[in-house]
Design a protein that fits this description.
This protein is mainly alpha-helical and 162 residues long. 58% of the residues lie in helices and 0% in strands. 33% of the residues are buried.
């Protein structure tokens, strides 16, 4: 879902076909680091404990490490691995700030949140597009994510079933 939405959004905002394909690839690979996380945590049907969540957060760093081993994939690696960074510097794995995050990295963070909120999981029902966008707006107000991207997501996905 993240890959499809990242590509659709990139196309919506006018990225060329190469950039759209790269956004798709980054979306497809963004959670590859979860291969290093214990299945008991990944498949837990309940809320994670603080310790489990701390271990789960390592997946973004593992994504960075795994994709660092592939030549000429630096931009896709960063777009994929930085999907939990926040503009206020309180994200992970590196605590990057707004000045350190480019547009594709900001897009991936927003798309990942949108996907996580709209899809149903074993422990929760997915939110509607409108409720999800309200949450994105609130996160933008708190300087977690890019407000301009959140607003464009509201329009881009308002009538889609991606």
């Amino acid at each position: 879902g993240v890959a499809e939405k990242a590509a659709a959004f990139a196309e919506y905002i006018g990225y060329d076909s190469t950039q759209v394909q790269k956004m798709y690839l980054a979306g497809a690979l963004h959670d590859i680091g979860k291969m290093a996380i214990d299945n008991d945590i990944l498949e837990k049907p309940d809320k994670l404990t603080d310790e489990e969540f701390s271990k789960m957060k390592n997946h973004a760093g593992y994504t960075y490490l795994i994709l660092s081993n592939i030549n000429d994939l630096e931009d896709i690696r960063d777009w994929a691995a930085f999907h939990h960074e926040k503009l206020n510097g309180k994200g992970y794995p590196f605590g990057k700030t707004a000045a350190e995050l480019n547009e594709p990295e900001r897009i991936m963070a927003c798309i990942d949140i949108y996907q996580a909120l709209t899809e149903s999981r074993p422990y929760k029902q997915g939110f509607s597009h409108e409720k999800t966008c309200d949450i994105l707006d609130d996160m933008a107000d708190k300087c977690f994510i890019d407000a301009g991207i959140a607003q464009k997501i509201r329009v881009c996905f308002q009538n889609t079933t991606i």
